[in-house]
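## retry 2 of 3
previous attempt timed out at serialization; input unchanged, resubmitting
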Amino acid sequence: MKKTLFLLSSLLLLAACNRENTQTLSIIAGSELKDLEPLFPDLERAVGVKLSVTYSGTLEGAERIAAGEKFDLAWFSHGKYLALSQPDKVRQQEKLMLSPVVLGVKTSRARSLGWAGKPVSWKTIAAAASSGKFRFAMTNPAASNSGFTALMGLSEAFGTGSDALLKDFFKGQTLTAGSSGYLSDAFVRDQSRLDGMVNYESVLLGLNSSGKLNEKLTLIYPEEGVVTADYPLTLLEPDKKEIYLKVVDYFKKKDVQERIVQTTLRRPVDPTVNTGTTFPTTLINELPFPRSSAQMNTILGRYLSSQRRPAYAVFVLDVSGSMGGDRMSALKDSLTRLAGADSSLTGQLSSFQTREKLALLTFSSVVNRPEFISINGKQDREQVKSFARGLNADGGTNIYGALEAAYGLLETERNKYPGYNFSVVLMTDGENNGELKLRDFQSFYGNLPSSVRGVRTFPIVFGEGNKGEMGEIANITGGRVFDGQKSLQGAFKEIRGYQ
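## retry succeeded, writing output
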C-alpha cells in the first residue's frame, strides 16, 4: 500500500513539475489547421510546449503582424505572402506537410467531359466553365487560403492573356465562401447543383471517404501545374528559436508525420513515410508563386474588380428603437468602411467592388422600400455612405417580414441579373416581435422557386439578437451565422468573403 501511494505521489509530482515547465507559444494560424488540434496535447507532453492559437486568413494574419500584434509563430498554408510583404518579421520557416490545391470533379461529370483518366489543362477547364458545362465551388481568394493559393496558381498557369482566361474560368463558379471548411459543407448540401470544387487535395480526399457524397470526386491535376500548400511553421520572435526548433522536430518525427497523413490526409514532408494508397500517383507539376507581395495584391485586385462573377448583396438592416446610440453608430461605421473608408489591405479587399450591386433594405415595425445601388465608381460608394448617415432608430423588430421582402425582390432581381452571385445579410439586435414568425418564413422559403432558394442568408448576432433563431435562418437557407458582439464591423467584413 505504501509503495502504491509513493508511486502515485511521484507521478503527481512529476505531472506538476511538467505543468510548471510547460512553455506557451502564441501562434496565428489558418483556420484549416484546426484539424491538427488533436496532436497538440501530445506535443505538450512530449516537448513541454502548449500552443495558444488564434485563427486567421493569410492576408488578415499578415496585416495583424504588420500592425504590431505580437505572436511567437505563424502557421499558414503558405508562408510566401508573409515572407515577401514583411521579410524583417520572418526569422525562420520550416515546411511541415503538403497538400496541393487541385480540382475535384464528380466522377460522372468527369467522364461526360472526357476528363477521366486523361490529361486535362486549366484552359480546357476554363472553356467548359465559360460555356456553362462546368459549375464549381471555390473559396474567395481575398478571404481564404485555399482560394488565394488557387488564384495565384491559375494566374501563373494562364500566363499571357490570363485576364480573359480567368474571366472564362470564374463564369463557372456558382458557390463561394470565406473558408475551406464551410465550402466543403456547402458543396455537400448543394452537390446536385454543382459539378466540382477547387480545394486542398486533403479536403477532397476527406470528402470522398466521408460517405456524404452521392458520388465520389475524381481529382484532376491539370497539365500546366498546381500550387502546393506546404504549411511552413514560421518563427516571428527570435528569442523563441530554441523552443520553436523543438516543435519543428516534433512535427517532423516519422510517427507524427504518419499520424498527420492518417488524420488530415496531407502529404508528409518526410519522403520515407509510407503513405500506401492514400494519395493518387499522378505526377504533379509545381507552379511558382508570384515574386512579390505587390504582384499578389494586383492579382487579387483584378480578381475582385473584373474577373470573378460580380456579387449582388441584399442587406437587411434592423433600425428598430433598440438600435439607437452606440449600436446605430456601429452600423453606420460598418457600412461606411465597406464603402471604402477602411484603407487597410483587408479593408480594401472587403470593400464594395466595381460591378457589384446592393439592395439596402431597412426594417423596424415596418419594412421600408429598398435602396438599390450599383457600384461603378467613387460616387456610388458615396451614395452608400450617404445612406448610412441617414439611418435612424425607431419602432419594433419585424425580422421575418423583412426577410420575406428580401427574398421577394430576389425573384425579380435574379431574372434581371443572371450572371451575379446573390446573397442576403441579416443584421438585427433583438427578438422578432412582428406578426410573422420563424415557421411562417420556413413555409414561405419552401415555396420559393429553386433558383431563389439557392440564395443564402448570413445572419449577424448582435445585441440581444436571438442566436437560436439566427442559426435556424442560416440552416434553412444554407448560410452561416456571424458574431457581431465584439465587432459589428468585423462581422460585416468577414461576410464579404462569402459574397
